[in-house]
Every structure is written in C-alpha cells, then in structure tokens.
Amino acid sequence: MPEIKVTPLGAGQDVGRSCILVSIAGKNVMLDCGMHMGYNDDRRFPDFSYITQNGRLTDFLDCVIISHFHLDHCGALPYFSEMVGYDGPIYMTHPTKAICPILLEDYRKITVDKKGETNFFTSQMIKDCMKKVVAVHLHQTVQVDEELEIKAYYAGHVLGAAMFQIKVGCESVVYTGDYNMTPDRHLGAAWIDKCRPDLLITESTYATTIRDSKRCRERDFLKKVHETVERGGKVLIPVFALGRAQELCILLETFWERMNLKAPIYFSTGLTEKANHYYKLFITWTNQKIRKTFVQRNMFEFKHIKAFDRAFADNPGPMVVFATPGMLHAGQSLQIFRKWAGNEKNMVIMPGYCVQGTVGHKILSGQRKLEMEGRQILEVKMQVEYMSFSAHADAKGIMQLIRQAEPRNVLLVHGEAKKMEFLKQKIEQEFHVNCYMPANGETTTIFTNPSIPVDISLGLLKRETATGLLPDSKKPKLMHGTLMMKDNSFRLVSPEQALKELGLTEHQLRFTCRVHIQDPRKEHETVLRVYNHLKGVLKDYSVQHLPDGSITVESILIQATAHSEDQGTKVLLVSWTYQDEELGSFLTSLLKKGLPQSTA
Amino acid sequence: MKMKMKMKIKGKNMQRRCFSGVCVAGYEDSGGNEILQLLPPPTLQAKETQGLCPERDFKVECGAFSNRPVYGLKHVPDTSLLVTSGPPDSSLRVWQVSAEDSDVIKPVGAIAAENDAGQPWAKIATISAKAPWVLHGSRLDSVRVTEVESRKNVYTAASRTSEELSDVAFLDRNTALLCCAEGQLSLADVRQAQAPLEAASVPWAPCGERWRMGVAAQGSDPGSRPVARVSSGGHLSLTDVRKTSESLAWVKCRFPRPSSGAEFLRVSWAPALQGCLAVSGFDGTVHVYDTQRWDSSGREAEPIFIHKGHALGGADSGDGPSLVTTHAWHPQKPRTVLSAASDGSLHVWEWVRP
C-alpha cells in the first residue's frame, strides 16, 4: 500500500521548535526548521541525526520548506544548512525570504554578543543559507523536480506566512504552519481550497485552545494605556518593525480619535522606514483595507501618531512611544527604557516573547534591579506588562480549516497522544477522518489510496457496450481487457489490440473432455437424445444440431462416438475454448450425470 | 474581561468546579452534545487581578460525548465525578473525569428507577457528607438521595403530591430543600427515611408563574442564608429557611417575561459578597442585585449592575437574540461572574464598584 510517513523531529513535547519530516512517494521533505527559544544548549535545535548519523543532509532531502519568519519555525535554518550541511533548495514566500535574515541576524547578535556563546552560526552563514532559498508566490505550483511539486496558500498570522501543499502524483500533504482563521486589522484570514489532501498536518495546541476574544484583549490593552496616560505617565511599547506594530498603531489611532485624547503617540523613524519598505514591497500580502489606504496615503501617516525624536523622551507629560528593537536588548527602545524605568507612573508593555539574556526577558521574569554597562544598577519602578497579540487559530479555527480543505487524514504534532483521546474522537466523529498524534521522534505511517487513471481504447469500449446490457450506475460492470503499462501511462485495450501492438500471435486454448454414457443405441440416436436433453435444460443458450452429427452449445462442440471396446457405451467428446471454460465445465458435469430415461 | 467561546453547540449549562475548572455542556436534542472541562487562564485562577497576561485562553482539559441533552450538570465534591440529567426522562448519568492521564470524561454509569420513564428531567444537587451523595428528582414524590459511587439509595421522599420540581439543594448534610415549579418550598430531613415533607408557598405569589430557587453555599449560618425565589413574571422573594411561611423581602424586578418560561431562569447568591445575588435567563443580560436594603413592599428593585455582553452579541447571531442560559459566581473573586448564552458564548466578567 502506498504510504506517507511523518516524523516530528526533536526531543521533548513542548511547542517551540517546529521541524517535521515527511516522506511521500519516495520524496523526503522537511517542513520548517525552528529553534526552541527556551534552551541554551543543543536542545534548542531539532535532532537531525534522525535523518542521518553523519555527513551532509543534501542527499537525504529533496527540499526544505519554511512557513514563516518566526524563529520557532526558521531559527535553526543556518545551523542546519551551514553547520550540519544541506545544499538543496529551501522554499519560502517572498516576504519570508526578505525578513528571515533580519530576524536571524538579530538573534545571532543577542546570542553571541550578549550571551557570549561561541558555537553558533555566523553572519556569513546566514547569508550563505539565504542563497539557497527559492522564493515562491501564493498559489504558484512550483516543480521541485519532475515528480514533486509544492504550492503556498495564504495563512494570515504574520506577513508572508503560508500553508504549504506538497504533492507527488496524486498523493498530497498540506502543512499549515501557524495560521489564523479570523482577519485582523492588517492581515487577512487563512484560506485554502477544497484540495482534499491525503493528510493535513497542524499543531495540536490549537485544537485544545479556546481563544479569548480579540476585542477583549484589545480593550484591556487600551485600558492599560489609557490609565497610564491619564495619570500623566509614559508608555513604552518595544516592537519589531513587522510584527504587530502596524496592528497596534491602527488600534491606538482609532481609540485616540474616538476618545478625543491629546497625549502624543510616537514611533521611531527607523521603524517607519523599515516597515513602510516591507509593506510596500509586499502589499499584496496585507488585507484589503491596508491596500486601499496605501493608495491614498503613506501607511504610517496617522493623525495622532508622529515620528519620534530622541529629545522627546525627556519631555514632561504623558506619551506613548513605539520603538525598536522588540526585546529591549539594544538601541532606541533600551535607551528610552533607561530614562523612564525609574518612574512608577510609567509603563512598558512587552508585546511578545523575549529571548533569555535580554532586558525584556529579565523584567518579565520579575527582575527589578538590572545591571547595565559600567556596573550601573537600574531600578525598575515602572509597571511591566506582557501582552501577546499574535494571531493564532484555535479549536474552532482548526475545525474550519479541516472543513475547507477536506483532508482524508489529520495529523496533530506536539501533543501527547494519550492526553488527546477526546480531541481525536471529536475530529474523527465530525469529519469521518483518521486523526493521528505522533510523539516527537515517532514516525506515523498513513496509508493512502491513490487513484490511478487508465485510458480505455475506443474499440474496447464499443465492444463492451455492444453486448446490449445498458449501463447501470448502481451495478459495477465487469469488463475484460488487457492493461498496457508504458512509461507512466496506463491503457486498457482489447486483447487483440494488445497482441497486435506487442507483435504476438494469438493462441487458442481448447479443452477436451470425454464423457462416457451408457447407451446401447446407435450414435446418431444418442446424439439426438443428448441434443433434446440439452435443449430442454439450457433454454437460454443456443443449442444446435448440425448436419454432420455434432451438437453445438454456443461455441462448445459435442460429438458422440462409440466406445472402441464396448458397444453399449458411447463416448461424448466435449470441446471448448478457454473463454468458454465456465460453460464447458458446466456441460461436462451435466452430461456426467447421465441422460434422462425418456426416449428421444 | 470578556471571553467568547467558539463552539457551535447551542448552549451551555455550567458548574464552577473548585476554582480550577469550568464544566460546560450542550443541550441539543439531536444528540452529539459535548461535556467539556475547561481550564481557565491564569488570570482567573489567581486571587488578585493581574494586568495583561500572556495566557488569556481557556484550554479544553477533557471532554465527553453525550447523546442526551444536558440540562443539569453538577460536580460531586471531593471526587472527580460529574452527574448530569436531562430529557427524555428523570434518570441521571455519572461521569468520571480523569484529567491526569487522559482527556476523556468516561461515562461510568446511570442512576435510574422504573418510575423515571417519561418524567421531566431531574433537578440535582450534590454533597459529600458521609459519602458523595446526589439529591435528585423531577417531582415531589420522586425525590431521592443516592450514593453516587455505589448507586445505593439513601433516602426516598414520601409525599402525597406530585408537583413538578424546579430546584433542589442541600442545606447541610441532613437537610434538603426542594422548590416546586409553582413556588412552594419543602424541607426534608434525609435521616428520616420516608418522612413526610412540609410545603410552604410563596406569600403573595400571583398565579400562573413559574419559580426557580437559589440557595447560598453550604456552610454558612442559616440566619444569613435567605432562600431566593424568582418567578417568570419578575417577582423575587427572599425567605428565611427556618421560617419558610414568612417573607423577608418581596420585590419586582424589571426584566421581560421569558418566552421559555422558567426553563433557563436562574438566581444565585454571590459566595463572597454579602447580600448580593445574580439573576439571568430571561433575555441576553445578567442582572446583579444588592438585597440588603430590600423590604416586603413589592416595589421595583434596581439592579446594581447589568451585564449586556451576550445581548450585544457576536458575529453569528443568525438564530435571533441570544438568551443567557446559565451563570455562576467565581468562588473567590467577589465580583467576578461567568455566564453562558444560547449562541455558544462564554463570558467572564466583573463589575467595578462606582
């Protein structure tokens, strides 16, 4: 049976390092190559030794696909391609290709410069790795080789995130990566057509989460910002240029307008330029609203949000500032943080995960006395808040996606199988598909039923329809023909045609059987008796008595001769072709039972 | 804080269990109902109100499928068992939650008797006294107390009348309080098997209204535990459980007469706020009242807060206005309430003292 094999790589059950191996019709594909942000040692990388113990991985993989630029999906890519060794193609969408190296470089800087690690990938490695990347467009079918093709679908979630369909012949797998089924202020919702893949691979964490409403989350964020500003405090929001900054800006602008607030909102120019640049390049990846706005004016031209100047940080009074980088580890956001940290009226809102070693991570862990350069201690009296505005699907979302794509099987990664029995039942009951949940390092095999198209020759079709029986959609029609397999095509032709094409002569196979009958009369009388008997029994068949003394039943020939030694016994010779095997055997058994006693 | 539950089941019945989980269940007649135990986000579990928290989502800890609609759902204290009741008869189903090693809530049995067939669904209450018990019944003459684990019958009511019940409760390990659909209260001593029950109707109750009852949590001193009864016509009566024939308070609440009668009507006392109760089930709102200044004059009472979230509703309100099907108080946070509505939404909210 053809099968698809899936192995999530890496140790441990936690989410945070996506890397899945798929084996489909002899092709090996790696889906994502993420880094686990919580570990400092080798545990942060997936365990590639599963693929091969030593040597480069180029020969073992046909391609690598990266779904989006978050580090838990692409963070291990330079390590994988340059330190372990892989020279094959790496596929990702255009925005991902543009943004990935920036994030990787930032991460590298933090790890090496801040934490002093030595065994880490270098800037050059990131560059070399990106040279192997082939960018793809949405809905574009990309031929990896003659048999393997991939296609990207819009996933929402972040700019450039995609779900990928991997297809070999008529077997296909869809990998969702991270996706979001509800549109937000600057991205659309994930969408896939009814592609009916054999397998859909997605995260199990989605299926057990019931998400808090976005409106609620936003309202809480706005409340916090408003309260701080009302009491004269300053709000610092460190952001990465292309994460949620755009979303939050739109949110604040609308709120400020509605509430008629006067406190200034700023964002650093570095941020605007970068963000504008990328959004301009990839405008088709944002949603309708943004695209319309962009035509009329610059996306960051808000009424209430202005460009920041570092001198403003010392201005008295309330304000809100968006500044990079997102983890407070360097640059402008750290500078501003140092100025404002000592005042308890102020607030810093961390919008995402912070890597260990950064100031962001430290203050989120509760540290309130930080050691800065030159042994200076910074006391943090400002309020520290953490909010995650990342757009993820949830239980309802995954059901919607399954309904859209109609996979035959579903596979959930990063879950514990025995703890997900209810969920498995729910998916199986709702969609009548099998649901699998492998542990990390465990391989799941899914059997597929590929359909193989076969061309039927016109002659054969005509012959079969000429038998007179009308086609009945409820009853399968049994046909006989010869299957010719040449290259990758299959044809069903009549045996004569097959013989002709192959240059073979047709052979006839004939069976002969002798049946002894006790009958003392003359041969021709026996023949008559046999004829009448058969005519009476085989009413549906053509039974004929030929002038030369033989009987035919359809194409079967029966002749009677006297036994050479015993005059009272007649020998019936029954002869038939291979095609009439059934009837021939039946006739023989019938005749062996003997003739009825009545006279002819 | 509002939370929207994204499930397509029509509605919920809820039971706040300990303070580490919420159980919800569906009540579709056509079957395919789920019973889910949800793990609330850390903000709800903690005592103090935290600021923004990264984890704001509910997690489905475990679940079960029920082919019957679930109208009554109660957790059995000190055990990992749940008891459910619902049409088509007054029998109960017992379920085992085993959250540690599996996510399946297993059906472990049923509590049924011959006279259950064809009866309205049973109202249930649970207590863990000498053993985990469930008090159940759909009519005054079919009230029983059954030991949940052994299914042994501990008490059977001996009543000459068979009025339909609307609510039952344990006042303490020996006393059960029963409320009939027409408003009468009855006390039963479960130690005396087959003792007769006494009934007391709601004073000044107009005819034709259907009543529901709310009793404060077990353990409080009976003096400060008035029994609240609310009717489909908007009347609210407070009675001292020791003197059920007298009335402590009698007011008129301003809410529309529910089309579903008293089916979803629910009144409950706040566990951590003196004299505060919540009423829901008449439309898409939940009313909170402060009963401390009430008297028996029958005048209109103003709620101190109205939660309108369910009425202002979500995206998929194609089935008409949503109805709040149930609500429950957070066991520790004084002003936090959970409510669920017929559109499948689950809200967790609190009001701020002005």
UniProtKB/TrEMBL annotation, chain A:
Q: Give the keywords, sorted.
A: Cytoplasm, Hydrolase, Metal-binding, Nucleus, Zinc
Tell me, which GO biological process terms does this entry list?
snRNA processing
Q: Which domain of life is it from?
A: Eukaryota
The record's subcellular location field reads: Cytoplasm; Nucleus
Cellular component terms (Gene Ontology): cytoplasm; nucleus
Q: Please give one Gene Ontology molecular function term for this protein.
A: hydrolase activity
Which cofactors does the annotated protein need, by name?
Answer: Zn(2+)
| Pfam annotation, one family | RMMBL
Q: Which Gene3D superfamilies match?
A: 3.40.50.10890, Ribonuclease Z/Hydroxyacylglutathione hydrolase-like (3.60.15.10)
**Chief localization:** cytoplasm
- Residues in Beta-Casp domain copies: 245-363
Metallo-beta-lactamase domain location: 16-233
| Family annotation (PANTHER family) | CLEAVAGE AND POLYADENYLATION SPECIFICITY FACTOR FAMILY MEMBER, INTEGRATOR COMPLEX SUBUNIT 11
Q: Which family does it belong to?
A: Belongs to the metallo-beta-lactamase superfamily. RNA-metabolizing metallo-beta-lactamase-like family. INTS11 subfamily.
The protein depicted here goes by the name Integrator complex subunit 11
Q: Which organism is it from?
A: Caloenas nicobarica (Nicobar pigeon)
State the encoding gene: Ints11
UniProtKB/TrEMBL annotation, chain B:
Q: Which InterPro entries match?
A: WD40/YVTN_repeat-like_dom_sf, WD40_repeat_dom_sf, WD40_rpt, Wdr73
Q: What SUPFAM superfamilies does the record point to?
A: WD40 repeat-like
Q: Which domain of life is it from?
A: Eukaryota
Q: Per the record, what is one GO cellular component?
A: cytosol
**What GO terms in the biological process aspect are recorded for it?**
cytoplasmic microtubule organization
For this protein, the record's Pfam families field holds: WD40 (PF00400)
Any idea what this protein is called?
A: WD repeat domain 73
